[in-house]
Amino acid sequence: MQSAYDSDKRKLLSALCHGSIFFSALLVSVAVPIAIWFVSEDPVVKDNAKEALNFHLNVWLYGLLLVPLSFITFGLAGGIWWLVHWGLTIWAVYQCLTTPERPVRYPFIFRPL
Which candidate, 59, 54, 48, places its Cα nearest to that of 24? Predict the structure, then answer.
């Protein structure tokens, strides 16, 4: 079945939603998926934007929990979370580019949105 939405635009916007976490760990990076969520008409892009927002919230929550723990573990807890967080983001961007017809779902996160 042919999709009514532009596949290249879907890939770009979906990858931008998930990859926005690379911009910074501040509020600047969360503005990108919020803007795309409200502007896009594509349901897959909207789902990817919502999932990226959920992932941002999880990154901040786990970061708040693991920063104090990192002082006790000499940075090990924070380092492992950093690898997981960046690894999952790279995986999500790859999934957006290779299978644009499906929204990405991160494993093991809370989805308040």
Answer: 59
